[in-house]
Design a protein that fits this description.
The chain has helices at residues 4-8, 20-43, 48-60, 64-77, 86-94, 98-108, 116-130, 132-137, 150-158, 163-172, 177-197, 201-213, 222-239. With 244 residues, the chain is mostly helical.
Length: 244
């Protein structure tokens, strides 16, 4: 049954997870945010909040280098933000600054040594920077339990579980729908991103489409919403028409 995930998501480029009108409205909203926060920075060049909000909008518009630069400016203005700034690590990743991304997630561990989602991002960054073998050898070690599905995703990276087994564990847990949807969101997101760093774009797009189409993340607060945008922008990168 789990193998049907790829079939259900199969018409990836021809069946986008977001209707065109909603995608267009999102673009207009993000561009408006960039304009407003750029004006705010002109008036208040020391505003960490303005750089944060413009950086987020840049990232969600796929302008990754500009997002990373705004996040760097935040840390310049307030160095106490450095260790916990996971958004900067993700922006580095998408800007192609993979070693800097890996370093950011390594530093983040001094802020939170339980959250395996940080270790997941360090692994993805290291795969791109150094290759899968070195990334697996360098997986951060965690002694304490973390919320599912992150331990299962970690086992996927370790080579101990397959994508089907990660999803099968969610199905076998007999969860309510409210409990299941968050796990499915993160599982499909990180399975998709793992396929992406392994240069398997069709499989990556199939799983990322399921993550973006999941109704849970957008209404679930800052972190899940931000990660929904990660799935969306990566899906868009994978399915964008090829330029001549």
């Amino acid at each position: 049954m789990i193998a049907l995930w790829l079939v259900l998501a199969g018409a990836w480029a021809d069946d986008p997870p977001i209707p065109a009108d909603k995608q267009a409205a999102l673009v207009r909203e993000l561009d408006d945010t960039i304009r407003r926060q750029s004006a705010a920075i002109q008036d208040h060049p020391m505003s960490v909040t303005a750089y944060s909000q413009r950086g987020d909008a840049y990232f969600k518009r796929g302008r990754f280098a500009e997002a990373a630069d705004d996040y760097d400016k935040m840390v310049d203005l307030d160095p106490t933000l450095d260790a916990a700034h996971w958004r900067r690590g993700i922006a580095y990743f998408y800007a192609g600054r993979y070693e800097k991304a890996a370093r950011q997630f390594e530093v983040y561990r001094t802020h939170d040594d339980v959250d395996r989602e940080n270790g997941i991002w360090r692994y993805l960054s290291q795969v791109k920077a150094f290759g899968k073998e070195k990334a697996q050898a360098g997986l951060l070690k965690y002694a304490k339990d973390d919320r599912e599905p992150f331990p299962s995703v970690y086992q996927l990276f370790e080579g101990k579980l397959t994508p089907e087994q990660v999803l099968g564990k969610i199905e076998d847990a007999k969860l309510s729908d409210d409990e299941k949807q968050p796990r499915l969101f993160y599982a499909t997101l990180y399975i998709g991103l793992n396929y992406a760093v392994e240069n398997r774009p069709k499989e990556a797009a199939a799983y990322l489409r399921k993550a973006v189409a999941n109704p849970w993340a957008l209404g679930s607060g800052f972190g899940p919403e931000w990660m929904w945008h990660v799935g969306r922008v990566h899906y868009d990168l994978l399915t964008a028409p090829k330029k001549d």
